[in-house]
Amino acid sequence: MMLKQRNSIEMRIARSLLFYTLFTVLLLWVFQVLFLNTYYHALRRKSIIKAGSEIISCISAENFDERLENICYTHGMCTLIIDEHGTEVNSVDMLGRRCLIHSPAKFSLPNIIEPVLKGEQNMLVLTVSDKHFHNETLIYAAAVTNPQRERVIIVLNANLDPVESTVWILKSQLRIITAVLVILAIIMSKIVARKLSKPIQNITKKAKRLANGDYIADYTGGGITEVEELAQALNFSAEGLSKVEELRRELIANVSHDLKTPLTMIKAYAEMIRDLTGDDKASRDEQLEVIISESDRLTALVTDLIRTSREEQQREYKKEAFSIKQKIDDIVSRFSQLYPDYHIISETESEKAAIGDTESIGQVLYNLISNAINYTGSDKTVRIKLFETPQAALRVEISDSGRGIPQEELPLIWERYYRSKNTHQRPVAGTGLGLSIVKSALTGQNLKFGVRSEIGRGSCFWFELPTENN
Ligand code: ADP
User: Fold this and answer.
1) Is 115 in the pocket of ligand 1 (CB under 6 A)?
2) CA pair distance 209, 217, nearest whole angstrom
């Protein structure tokens, strides 16, 4: 239960959001509290250098004094321009008593800017502490040549205000922000989780019906793409399951019907022999013949059922080279022995090896030839042809001279349990499974197949096999 709770969508979202919130707050603390001083110093440094270069760029301007004042005012700095001997050339005092460069008593300017004074360095920026006010201050010095072609030094001074009070304000603000963000994260995770898990819970509730045989496909995903996909998959499965259920019912009905008819006949004829026929050999043989053919029908039905159930288990097809001519000849000779009064003619031209699953191709041939024998016309002729197509495939054609199949029925005959409504010349033992077995074997191996049929002239079932070279 605890584990279930811990792994729930709500808990997962809450964990992620809290992590995100705390990470954001931590970043804010690091930047705003820990690094504020460093950041502020860097900014002031940048600003003093910028002010310096602004002064340098306008040193030859006519209204230099005015512009100098403006620059100092904008950047909040003091300026002192001196010549190489330290004599003041120009000056703007913005900071009053807090200015270092205008209070020679506080420190010795020439010492500090010595490298620039002596020409060892063109520019320098220094942080100096003002002992009197217990704060730090920035000194900038840069050498430049004025319009009178004299070398002068521009010295700037900017105060670095202490950031402690700002840090204190930020800290107290951050505490409130952290609390608000954490509460928001918890509320948000509850709302989002509810929105996400509601449709999933609905689906779960409905999916439980599947186990009870309720296959209504009415799953919805509440507008969430992934859940919609799940709902669609479940709708698909429910439809599939209901079809299977329908097929199962149909199968039971068909099979029980098909089993019952021959069994009734067998029982009736056996009773007839026992009770009525007596020693009349001729009619007894006739009745026994019926019993035998009805038993054959039962055997055919059971064989077909076994094959279908095997096909259903997603068969794996081999790809082996085999002699299709040999296969046809074997099956034809078996049928010829079984039906000596039929003309089963095989016209096998090609000796080439085919590629495919020998066993399943044998089954296909067996079913197609058996159908042709069952449905052929009064000339009792069945023709099996094997030849190479221009695309170098091996084509097998099985034709009969029966009544043919109506055009509209052609797509249906491959369906499971489909049996033509047409009454055939002879009552034919069949289950409606033969062609569905053929179809699943051929489509399972990606082989081309089909049927041509002409009413009154017969049908021709065909399929093509690849050879070793294609
Ligand atoms: P069945 O066991 O009924 O023969 P099949 O799946 O083999 O089942 O065939 C389905 C239906 O297709 C048959 O009932 C029959 O109506 C029709 N059919 C199959 N082969 C032929 C054929 N060679 N000539 C005429 N009709 C055929």
Assistant:
1) no
2) 11
